Structure to design on (144 residues):
């Protein structure tokens, strides 16, 4: 099978040239990271809130939401053929999360030094998930 030049970097990341497999792997990784982050936020909201300089109630709420979202993304990743509209929704939610993380940092949060490093770092990771998921979805559509 010929590899598209546009997806070469993705094939290296996903270790496959099949866009459906790439997409499912990127969704699965997103699900694991997101749910894991959510569990940490929810289970240790007080300690993490103190460490990051973020309200523990906010972290608890975000944690529960992230666990639910991560489970939903995991269910999508487990499907043999994830529906394009659902994948596009995941990409869009990830973009919104990344942008709002930076806006929150600048506009209304006053985090500790650790929080000032963590918040943009997780925004970059989530934005990266959006980028690779979008690229894999685009390649999948192009091959149909």
């Amino acid at each position: 099978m010929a590899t598209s030049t546009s997806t070469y970097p993705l094939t290296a990341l996903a270790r496959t040239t099949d866009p459906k497999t790439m997409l499912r792997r990127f969704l699965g990784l997103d699900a694991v990271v997101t749910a894991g982050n959510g569990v940490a936020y929810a289970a240790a909201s007080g300690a993490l809130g103190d460490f990051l300089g973020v309200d523990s109630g906010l972290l608890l709420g975000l944690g529960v939401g992230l666990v639910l979202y991560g489970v939903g993304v995991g269910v999508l990743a487990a499907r043999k053929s994830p529906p394009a509209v659902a994948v596009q929704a995941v990409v869009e939610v990830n973009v919104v999360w990344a942008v709002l993380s930076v806006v929150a940092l600048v506009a209304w949060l006053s985090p500790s030094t650790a929080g000032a490093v963590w918040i943009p770092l997780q925004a970059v990771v989530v934005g990266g998930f959006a980028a690779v998921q979008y690229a894999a979805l685009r390649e999948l559509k192009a091959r149909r």
In short: The radius of gyration is 16 Å.
